[in-house]
Specification:
With about 375 residues, the chain is an alpha/beta fold. It has 2 domains: about 170 residues, Rossmann fold (3-Layer(aba) Sandwich), CATH 3.40.50.2000; about 180 residues, Glycogen Phosphorylase B (Rossmann fold, 3-Layer(aba) Sandwich), CATH 3.40.50.2000. The chain has 18 helices and 13 strands. The strands form 2 sheets. A 7-stranded parallel β-sheet has the order 3-2-1-4-5-6-7, with helices on both faces. A 6-stranded parallel β-sheet has the order 10-9-8-11-12-13, sandwiched between helices. Helix 13 links the parallel strand 11 and strand 12. The chain is globular and about 60 Å long. The two termini are about 15 Å apart.
Length: about 375
């Protein structure tokens, strides 16, 4: 069968790559055309647009890039028509994907959504469009099934979280060898995960690195995103106690003692690697003020949302400053606090379901598309 996949962010590229592997295993005749990134391109198929050319975050940023966004939407529609797929698979990225889903549904093309838009956080009104335009929804967070089925009477498939597969299938990293190969010394590592988009990295990294001199017993390592180049990161590095590793985030997390993490999928990844973390977020002030008034959540990190309690500290906007980062990092370096957090992390993993999310989703997509 012919599959058209649209992933518009780094996390979507990761999940899309694993889904593609599973689709190819289940369907030897799979012909896949997609919007994604380097991970998906390693699997095969035909890459149409790279997510680094699509990622605009925040209300203000989107406004400034509307022309590009609408141009991409038109291009996508034309490309789908030429490819004539059996099914279009959307991976998160709702601002773009929901527009394509509406159009595709009218065209009679089957529409499957893998990794739900976070309508439980904001824009709950999108449920009307989802019910109208999405044939099958595959959710990866346990509370999403309850949200859709109990609150909105829309049946969905809970397939478990694909990160569990990604992390559990990785080869164990030798700590000493890792340090030697990456020119690191013997001190414990504090990982810095400032995000994947240039604008968020610019807002996060300077504050994250401001506390380095106060923690000389540790070495700090920035997890560089595949969408950014080395020169960009190095403009923020002012001391020899900060190192940069590109495209080695999971290896870095597997050997880290603690982490400072920008809110997003990375908070969940860090938790699954059992690394104590401080969650940080600072956005455009206007975008933040708008979001604060329309997003009705007690927490911003996936870790806390899934556990429904503040297991990890969240430093948001004005609270994200040198003093608070230093204070909260000190806390998670304390053994007693770490013991409690490790217990919370194990509870989190239990709630996320077992392994096999990508395989379950691929089988369901193939089964439902053939109907």
């Amino acid at each position: 069968m012919k599959y058209y996949i649209i992933a518009g962010e780094a996390s979507g590229d990761l999940h899309g790559a694993n889904l593609m592997k599973a689709l190819i295993r289940e369907d030897q005749d799979a012909n896949i055309r997609y919007w994604g990134g380097d991970l998906m391109s390693k699997i095969g198929g035909t890459l149409i647009k790279h997510y680094k050319d699509l990622a605009f975050m925040g209300f203000v940023e989107v406004l400034f890039n509307l022309k590009t966004i609408f141009k991409n939407i038109t291009f996508c529609k034309n490309d789908i028509v030429k490819f004539n797929p059996d099914v279009v698979i959307f991976i998160d990225y709702p601002g773009f994907n929901m527009r394509i889903a509406k159009w595709a549904k009218k065209k009679g093309i089957k529409t499957h959504y893998y990794i739900s838009p976070q309508i439980w956080a904001w824009k709950e009104s999108r449920i009307k469009a989802i019910k109208r335009d999405v044939d099958q929804m595959y959710v990866i967070l346990p509370f999403e099934k309850t949200f859709y089925e109990d609150k909105h009477q829309f049946p969905v498939h809970f397939v478990g979280h694909p990160l569990i597969d990604e992390i559990s299938n990785r080869t164990q990293v030798d700590v000493e060898l890792f340090k030697k190969e990456n020119n690191l010394d013997q001190r414990p590592i504090i990982a810095i995960l400032p995000g994947s988009r240039k604008q968020e990295i610019s807002k996060m990294l300077e504050v994250m690195l401001s506390i380095v001199e106060d923690f000389s017993m540790y070495q700090f390592v920035i997890a560089g995103a595949p969408s950014q180049d080395e020169k960009f990161y190095k403009s923020f590095i002012k001391t020899s106690n900060v190192h940069l590793l590109l495209n080695k985030t999971y290896d870095l997390l597997s050997v880290s003692y603690a982490a400072l993490v920008t809110s997003g999928t990375a908070t969940l990844e860090t938790a699954l690697f059992k690394v104590p973390q401080v969650v940080c977020y600072k956005g455009n002030q206007i975008s933040y003020e708008i979001a604060k008034r329309i997003i009705k959540l007690n927490y911003i990190s996936l870790v806390n949302l899934i556990l429904d309690k503040e297991a990890v500290t969240e430093l948001i906007q004005s609270d994200f400053n040198k003093k608070m980062v230093s204070k909260e990092l000190t806390k998670i370096l304390d053994d007693d606090n770490r013991t409690v957090l490790f217990s919370d992390y194990h509870e989190l993993e239990d709630k996320l379901g077992g392994i096999g999310a990508s395989e379950k989703t691929a089988k369901l997509i193939i089964e439902e598309t053939k109907k």
